[in-house]
């Protein structure tokens, strides 16, 4: 009988190799995503919508350059016009001096009457091309009305040069040519580029408010200075320079207030010399020779 001896020694096996730990590499993009206060799903959603936007923009650009947009716009405007949204009425306000029919003609001169295709900016530009119109506001009122609000220029004087007469506003802007028979009760400014000096002349006359209503005309002399004409027939020659002329006019107004210089038969006052004033009286009629 064979006896088997038991031993406490363990059976030696092949030693196990230690398992290698896999190192996960994190990209810079992942680090940026983790640092952002948004989830990865939100970022993916944003990228998706961004791609959709790029596609739509590209499609729109293709349609625009191929003329599809304009055709769609024209067809849509035609449908709108056929539905009754077409310019049929024009309401005009603020017109006093210009022909109101002219405003209607300009407002209705659009090639397409559809409310959608009316070029508001072009209508405004065409209206302002009229010298009398200072500003124009155009708006639509559905279904079929254009609202035109006009701001007119105010004539303040008549400008005379080279035998030509024109109404001008306070800035010197020419409004309309007129004939001698059409001259209104406004001061007449004489001289080349005298209209450009209207603001300066206004400041000058404001120095002597008592004399201002009596001034019926002014001549711009040698592109340097003013001669003023009064309703009583006198002419006042002022010196060069805006400040010097204002001081001379103020002094003349004071003397007229004390001594009543105007309306006393003097033809011409000359204040160009700062030291003294010169007067010119009317010529005396020559005595008739007695018959021999």
Describe the protein.
Keywords: Cell cycle, Cell division, Cell inner membrane, Cell membrane, Membrane, Transmembrane, Transmembrane helix. It is found in: Membrane. With 292 residues, the protein is an alpha/beta fold. Helices cover 32% and strands 21% of the residues. It contains seven helices and twelve strands. The strands form two sheets. It has a nine-stranded mixed β-sheet with strand order 6-5-4-7-8-9-10-11-12, with no helix packed on it. Strands 1-3-2 form a three-stranded mixed β-sheet, covered by helices on one side. Strand 10 (235-237), helix 7 and strand 11 (268-270) form a beta-alpha-beta unit.
What is the topology?
Blueprint: H1 28-35, H2 40-65, H3 68-82, E1 89-93, H4 100-107, H5 120-128, E2 133-141, E3 145-152, E4 157-161, E5 164-168, E6 174-178, E7 188-190, H6 198-206, E8 215-221, E9 225-230, E10 235-237, H7 242-259, E11 268-270, E12 278-280
Parallel strand pairs: 1-3, 4-7, 7-8, 10-11
Antiparallel strand pairs: 2-3, 4-5, 5-6, 8-9, 9-10, 11-12
């Amino acid at each position: 009988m064979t006896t088997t001896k038991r031993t406490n020694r363990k059976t030696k096996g092949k030693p196990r190799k230690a398992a290698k730990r896999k190192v996960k590499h994190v990209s810079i993009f992942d680090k940026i995503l983790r640092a952002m206060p948004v989830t990865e799903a939100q970022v993916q959603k944003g990228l998706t919508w961004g791609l959709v936007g790029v596609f739509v923009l590209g499609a729109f650009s293709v349609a625009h350059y191929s003329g599809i947009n304009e055709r769609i716009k024209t067809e849509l405007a035609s449908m709108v016009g056929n539905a009754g949204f077409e310019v049929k009425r024009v309401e005009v306000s603020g017109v006093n001096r210009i022909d109101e029919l002219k405003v209607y003609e300009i407002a209705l001169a659009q090639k397409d009457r559809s409310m959608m295709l009316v070029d508001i900016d072009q209508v405004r530009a065409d209206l302002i091309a009229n010298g009398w119109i200072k500003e124009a506001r155009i708006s639509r009122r559905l279904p079929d009305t254009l609202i035109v609000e006009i701001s007119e220029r105010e004539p303040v004087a008549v400008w005379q040069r080279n035998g030509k007469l024109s109404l001008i506003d306070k800035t010197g802007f020419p409004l309309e040519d007129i004939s001698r028979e059409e001259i209104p009760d406004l001061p007449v400014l004489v001289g080349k580029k005298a209209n450009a000096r209207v603001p300066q002349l206004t400041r000058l006359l404001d120095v002597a408010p008592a004399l201002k209503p009596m001034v019926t005309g002014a001549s711009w002399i040698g592109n340097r200075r003013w001669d003023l004409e009064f309703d009583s027939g006198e002419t006042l020659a002022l010196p060069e320079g805006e400040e010097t002329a204002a001081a001379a006019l103020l002094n003349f107004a004071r003397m007229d207030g004390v001594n009543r210089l105007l309306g006393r038969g003097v033809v011409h006052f000359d204040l160009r010399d700062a030291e003294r004033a010169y007067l010119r009286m009317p010529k005396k009629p020559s005595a008739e020779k007695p018959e021999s």
